[in-house]
Amino acid sequence: RVAVVLERHLKVLHLCLFVEANLIREPLVVFVCATTGQGDPPDNMKNFWRFIFRKNLPSTSLCQMDFAVLGLGDSSYAKFNFVAKKLHRRLLQLGASALLPICLGDDQHELGPDATIDPWLGDLWEKVLELYPVPIDLPVIPHGVPLPSKFTLQFLPEAPNPSSKESCLAISDSLGPPSESQPFLAPMVTNQRVTGPSHFQDVRLIEFDITDSGISFAAGDVVLIQPSNSAAHIQQFCHVLGLDPSQCFVLQPREPDVPCPPGLPQPCSVWQLVSQYLDMASVPRRSFFELLACLSPHELEREKLLELSSAQGQEDLCEYCSRPRRTILEVLCDFPHTAGAIPPDYLLDLIPQIRPRAFSIASSLLVHPRRLQILVAVVQYRTRLKEPRRGLCSSWLASLDPKKGPVQVPLWVRPGGLAFPETPDTPVIMVGPGTGVAPFRAAVQERVAQGQTGNFLFFGCRWRDQDFYWGDEWQELEKRGCLTLVTAFSREQGQKVYVQHRLRELGPLVWELLDHRGAYFYLAGNAKYMPTDVMEALMSIFQEEGGLSHPNAATYLARLQRTLRFQTETWA
User: Fold this and answer.
1) Binding site annotation covers 453?
2) Broadest EC class (predicted)?
3) Is 426 one of the annotated binding-site residues?
4) Is 498 assigned to a binding site?
């Protein structure tokens, strides 16, 4: 509840809308920021980032400002909350005063980011109320009373004419490339399983037709895909909440200057709202239970919801939701009296928006003109719950079959975290186990088409005949002298062999490429253990082949990272 009040009543800096020059006049600012790529700020923060790090800003620029920084991160990544830490230091350099130490939220914590954010928010409010006491004539909102919803749903007596302009998505006048607000509906051409029938994981090679889309991309770029909920889940959700999926409404903000969510048509049907916007397949956070308790008319269910949303109930909440990965839809089914009484106006406050998923582009336009390919591992695993857990986007993509009829997928492209050298004689070392090899296929295709040599690929998987993605293609390029391929099939011998073992085996070659030929080193794949193992292998190579001490090896690696000769693209 404190977090909701904080958002509504305190100056929280929305960096995508904020005019940077106004910062010098703000007495109190709370910065909430994430970290992307190689320790980079999010896209909506980049203009602000360039401004705040201008060298000509006086050291007293922000001497009138009190501030607090909340970082949202994931400690499985090497650059954990890098942007928040750097921003905090920079604000102090410019004369601003920190109300309290930086807060580093961590998605990897068993209790999620709330484990650190909750106590930090309590301390923040104490500091803020000392500086800005609540006026005597302003009553405190009683505990258990929800704030007004951000939007109202004004239901229409009858469905609008489907051909009317109002019922369609707004069409941008911009001639620019597709974006989140205006994605391209790309026809799916193929959806092919590329793992063997006995392999534990379903991995798909999916190809889209991007003819006349205005989309262009280079190796290292990513495609963002906007998924939808399954028809079965939509029907179940509407049944539990007592909603008519065919009913239409107009969305109205309660406060001026609050935009309606992009991508929702006006008027909109309940089916469109639930299928395209409400992320009922996500695991709910504590704030979901707080608001749900406020909306519950059922005494027993309300008591349980209050317990799960309390500070003392966080271990119970973790056991109920976080560990088994119970979804919002499943929670609503567990609290049927509450679910059936949720006012529709609160749906957008209660349930987060479905976010687009990013996939490394696995093809080059130089080899596959007017096409875009991705490699998708279909996420499915079991917990103690009866139903297996499924990834929303990967499962949705896997369910689409262009052989049965036309299929269109909303997508757009943005620059990724990997940038490859343009000089033709600069070698590149690419380490991509599993689906991490996807961006390197685009890179190899692009570099070979441009006549660039010195392509070294370290690929790892379990079995040569089950999950050796593009194995024939790599071997053909190797025969032509366009690629040096090093493989690690981990399950084909008694002792498991991974890409880091192959790197150590070829230590003299790796050192020669990096230290004498100026090679670039790239790493892509799962962020859990592999990046650390690969960096340890590199450190060992620097010491054994380069004769460096451990501190000097660490400095050497840091210099590679700083000059972008060591780049990573990893995911949790």
Assistant:
1) no
2) oxidoreductase
3) no
4) yes
